[in-house]
Amino acid sequence: MVQLHDLKFTPFISESEINAGIEKVAAQINADFEGETPVFLGILNGAFLFAAELIKKFKGDCEVHFVRLSSYEGTGTTGKVESLMGLTESLKGRQVIIIEDIVDTGNTIESIDKILKREEVESYKIATLFYKPAAYHKSLHIDYIGLEIPNDFIVGYGLDYNGLGRNLTQVYKLKNTKMTNLVLFGPPGAGKGTQAT
Ligand code: 5GP
Ligand code: MG
Ligand code: MG
């Protein structure tokens, strides 16, 4: 068990399960991008560990960029994605692979979709380490999924609770999820302040 701020979390996904998810995604990307030079676009902060592991497993040439989105408050989503920072290179005509920590409601990837269309990329794919099918309510196809998980709030392996927990090597979930759900997934703005996702 770990305690972060006021909340307790219990072990949920082991390091070996995480690694297996990353291996699976890497194998699919290597097959799909053989002979190509894609641009990996990591979404900070949450995707930094996944991006590092995934990119190390890519067998060809690639570029790597990181951008930041601000969209999430505490443990409840606002449904609002503010901005994308740090995109200094033109992506026009490139094959882009977005690297996300987790796809929850899908608001973030929908926002990125709009931005990449504006950038006139040749194509883009979405790679996410975790995916919550029960929470996802968008129609965008998610190309590469490490692990599907239930609709629990998780921390670890890059994912935080109000800034803490990103360094945990395995993934934990909230203890007593049902009770806390009532509070934590309340109305927009009920969280603890905007932060990088
Ligand atoms: P979206 O709802 O837009 O798909 O997800 C937005 C962002 O919220 C994710 O990239 C991630 O940073 C954060 N998020 C969603 N679900 C969780 C979760 O269970 N735990 C943590 N720590 N962050 C989450
Ligand atoms: Mg976060
Ligand atoms: Mg994210």
Please tell me about this protein's structure.
The protein is of the alpha/beta class. It has helices at residues 15-32, 48-56, 107-118, 177-184; strands spanning 2-4, 7-13, 39-44, 63-73, 76-77, 84-85, 95-103, 123-131, 144-148, 154-155, 171-174, 194-196. Helix 1 crosses helix 2 (48-56). The two termini are 23 Å apart. Residues 179-195 have low confidence and may be disordered. It binds guanosine-5'-monophosphate and magnesium ion (2 copies). One magnesium ion (MG) binds next to loops.
Give a topology summary.
Elements: E1 2-4, E2 7-13, H1 15-32, E3 39-44, H2 48-56, E4 63-73, E5 76-77, E6 84-85, E7 95-103, H3 107-118, E8 123-131, E9 144-148, E10 154-155, E11 171-174, H4 177-184, E12 194-196
Parallel strand pairs: 3-4, 3-7, 7-8, 8-9
Antiparallel strand pairs: 1-2, 2-11, 4-5, 4-6, 4-12, 10-11
Helix pairs in contact: 1-2
The structure holds guanosine-5'-monophosphate (5GP) and magnesium ion (2 copies).
